[in-house]
Amino acid sequence: MHSWRISKFKLGRSKEDDGSSEDENEKSWGNGLFHFHHGEKHHDGSPKNHNHEHEHHIRKINTNETLPSSLSSPKLRNDASFKNPSGIGNDNSKASEMKASQSSTETQGPSSESGLMTVKVYSGKDFTLPFPITSNSTILQKLLSSGILTSSSNDASEVAAIMRQLPRYKRVDQDSAGEGLIDRAFATKFIPSSILLPGSTNSSPLLYFTIEFDNSITTISPDMGTMEQPVFNKISTFDVTRKLRFLKIDVFARIPSLLLPSKNWQQEIGEQDEVLKEILKKINTNQDIHLDSFHLPLNLKIDSAAQIRLYNHHWISLERGYGKLNITVDYKPSKNKPLSIDDFDLLKVIGRGSFGKVMQVRKKDTQKIYALKALRKAYIVSKCEVTHTLAERTVLARVDCPFIVPLKFSFQSPEKLYLVLAFINGGELFYHLQHEGRFSLARSRFYIAELLCALDSLHKLDVIYRDLKPENILLDYQGHIALCDFGLCKLNMKDNDKTDTFCGTPEYLAPEILLGQGYTKTVDWWTLGILLYEMMTGLPPYYDENVPVMYKKILQQPLLFPDGFDPAAKDLLIGLLSRDPSRRLGVNGTDEIRNHPFFKDISWKKLLLKGYIPPYKPLVKSEIDTANFDQEFTKEKPIDSVVDEYLSASIQKQFGGWTYIGDEQLGDSPSQGRSIS
Fold this sequence. Notes:
Elements: E1 2-5, H1 24-27, E2 35-38, E3 82-83, H2 95-107, E4 115-125, E5 133-134, H3 137-145, H4 156-163, H5 166-169, E6 170-173, E7 179-182, E8 194-196, E9 203-205, E10 207-213, E11 216-220, E12 224-225, E13 230-240, E14 246-253, H6 263-272, H7 274-284, E15 289-297, E16 308-317, E17 324-333, E18 344-353, E19 356-363, E20 369-376, H8 377-382, H9 386-398, E21 407-412, E22 416-422, H10 429-436, H11 441-460, E23 473-475, E24 481-483, E25 503-504, H12 511-514, H13 523-537, H14 547-556, H15 567-576, H16 591-594, H17 604-608, H18 631-634, H19 649-653
Antiparallel strand pairs: 1-2, 3-25, 4-13, 4-17, 5-7, 6-7, 8-9, 10-11, 10-14, 12-13, 14-15, 16-17, 18-19, 19-20, 20-22, 21-22, 23-24
């Protein structure tokens, strides 16, 4: 179980920074916008096994550890990030594609101004499956009878009409002992798009799709119809704070395993088709399968105050030809009005800390679910963290990467600062890695590729991340990476600029940090290498429960690999984990890493469009599910209460420019709305 808690603010200063109290790191939380923190229980509620070979003890190490005399002792954060106050297509070979994907996704950036986008989904047609289904009339009739086929209360006549067509589409498979099957092109005629389970009044979709815009996801389920011709009649509204150039549609199917052909047929086809083998495996383990996708182009750069219809009852054909959807898309620019807490319904508490708390909220006008983080101004001022808080808000408002948790809005009251972010509910990568021990090669490659894009987007903004680790990486509803917690970022770092602040997570520290030599952006490539090694083996390469010993290993021990380690991954890690920063892979730019043979099967353009199906889908029921949050918080009643902390006008002025509703800063004055504690 995880808690979304407010991380520690970065309180230390390097010698180029202003000074601050030396004990602030121990007393405060970090200024990462949020991150999941692994609690004392597993997701099943059982106590942690502290003898687990993959537990990361050092991430909660004792601050009384003694360091070698050559190294100063940092003050460690409780979540183990610390700052010392003293101190998958084969297109990547095409350079043109790489430059195009970088340009379209990162360098152009989103344009300003905000608005509301409304997507109306009417119906679908011509949906098919990638495999045949059984022609067993008993199974099909029972399934159709549980379906919602029409708006009529009696679907019996419709079921009978469909079943009369069965002989027409039934065929005998000569390769599987004469088994009777229905060809994949016609199978959806005999499957309802949604069903009513016994004892339930709510329908369960067998076909559904998600619409994603700027990391906000809405699930659209059918009202009735067959899977071939589903009827939706649904409306979803999105807040537009960045004028991105497309919205993404992903179609999923939930196929009962009883519909599959015999086990013999499945085994035979699995030996011929690895993709279909994986699909059948998911169905047999009650998992949803991804059918198809579509990227709908959008032109939101409209100089008009009136509502614009971008698509009118437009039929879109999915990319792989598995179906069509009929939609309308409207966009209405909105006046840039500051928000307040009154614009949100408070749903659940998902984290709490000394600065305030984090809640799951629903924006009243669009009904979109977000994470809202409230920060007490008085506490921020007392810790001299105004500059860093504003800087982090600025980074998240500027960054344009699908693999970084985006800032949606920010606003303030006289007592509080508020940050509204995309709600990411798939859990920490740390938890999934701890639970599974290690990841497969393909899964590790997928995550590292998405993280490479995230770090590159920060570097293009002259930002060093400095705290890459599984705890700061979330999985979204579908299984994509979402990097969070920007409390240790360093801003305004050009390619050759150096900083010398001693910060990070012990087992991820680069040699140049330990030696106090100063470091550049390449420090992030070291941490990327450590993370890849940990994902593939279960532990970081220089891990030791004794911190001083671990630091010596980082500086001196040869990089060792288990038997049978993938050669391309080994070569990549040797490059990323070079102790000499000037020879480290990536020192001459991210393309050095992208072009490595380890990523030869990655199409970077497709990756940036979230075009690959994630290798793992988190176990969440929907985009609003809070099962991956600690019940210690979610069981609290979300309430808003007044905080009685007076701040002078001169102090309030320090928070000028905080408000964000789409690349817009709306004055220096806090609104007089209510605040939450």
